[in-house]
Write a structure and sequence with these properties.
The chain has ten helices and nine strands. By secondary structure, the protein is of the alpha/beta class. Strands 1, 2, 3, 8 and 9 form a five-stranded parallel β-sheet that branches. A four-stranded mixed β-sheet has the order 4-5-7-6, sandwiched between helices. The two termini are 33 Å apart.
Length: 291
């Protein structure tokens, strides 16, 4: 049996020290568009196959390609309407494949954090040298394409290894989205440097809602509002974090975009909501609450 990696301490939700977000906000709200590239015929990984059907899985490939051709632009318009900046979970190869999308995000002052090189190349089975190589590649590629430093990490297709958290902290990355243990940031135990977990909910992730829970758009929009309502209420006692992870190949379809728009309109209509990015949440947390 694998040992417990002791990544974080047990931290009961009651009687914690109070967090108050910027300008007295009760809740820090951020949106994570996953801007990804899926290869039609990626290198084989012994632990996971990228497509459910034999190669070439044209249907699966083209369904995801819809996001890069149509969905992201539709999503940007909606987020612009409510002054919501994105924190982009980026397959960094997108900087070469579709630089037009990267430029559109950069012009909007969106943040970029790493989601690996491709979402079809998994970390499972990588040795340390290989894993260091993709971290360095991500940092270099994003810097060159956008001028930004990579401050966050979400492993490609959530395929981290036992050493991922130590390595990204060593390279100066501030937060990970690969842990789902809390509704507030939490210090992660690493060998060198500092790292926190950033709340990134799978429960309101559109992939889970649409593909696993088989929700209708109306139901999806409703759970976004209910997720916000509860976290906003609890934020009176200590500031919470809400993230909406998005994939434009799903939420960017014409019949689904309205549900997201209505949720953004609802959430941004409240006082005491800090509409921000993951990087800004991390910086604020490090400055005021890390120690």
């Amino acid at each position: 049996m694998m040992r417990d990696p002791q990544l974080y301490s047990y931290w009961p939700y009651i009687n914690r020290s109070k967090i108050t977000w910027k300008n007295g906000a009760k809740i820090a709200f951020w949106v994570a568009p996953n801007i990804e590239f899926y290869e039609l015929d990626p290198p084989k990984n012994p632990f996971r196959t990228p497509w459910p059907r034999p190669n070439p899985d044209i249907s699966g490939y083209s369904m995801r390609d819809y996001g890069n051709r149509v969905g992201h632009y539709r999503l940007m318009e909606v987020m612009d309407k409510y002054n919501v900046r994105g924190s982009v979970s980026l397959s960094v190869a997108m900087c070469q494949h579709h630089p037009e999308i990267i430029e559109a995000c950069n012009q909007r002052n969106w943040e970029f954090f790493s989601h690996g090189i491709y979402n079809t190349r998994y970390c499972y089975g990588m040795d340390e040298t290989q894993e260091r190589a993709i971290i360095k590649d991500a940092i270099h590629t994003v810097k060159e394409a956008t001028g930004q430093k990579v401050d966050g990490w979400l492993a490609p297709a959530l395929t981290h290894t036992e050493r991922t958290f130590d390595l990204i902290a060593e390279y100066g990355i501030k937060y990970t989205c690969d842990l789902f243990q809390d509704d507030q940031p939490q210090k992660i135990n690493v060998q060198k440097g500092r790292l926190i977990s950033m709340p990134y909910s799978l429960e309101v992730n559109d992939v889970i809602c649409y593909n696993s829970y088989l929700m209708s758009p109306r139901h999806y929009g409703d759970i976004l509002k209910r997720q916000f309502d509860q976290l906003y209420l609890e934020g009176q006692d200590s500031g919470t974090v809400m993230c909406i992870p998005l994939h434009a190949y799903l939420v960017g379809h014409p019949h689904r975009i309205k549900a997201l728009e209505e949720a953004l309109k609802y959430i941004t209509s409240f006082d005491d909501v800090w509409v921000t990015t993951a990087r800004e949440i991390a910086d604020y947390y490090y400055e005021h609450y890390y120690e």
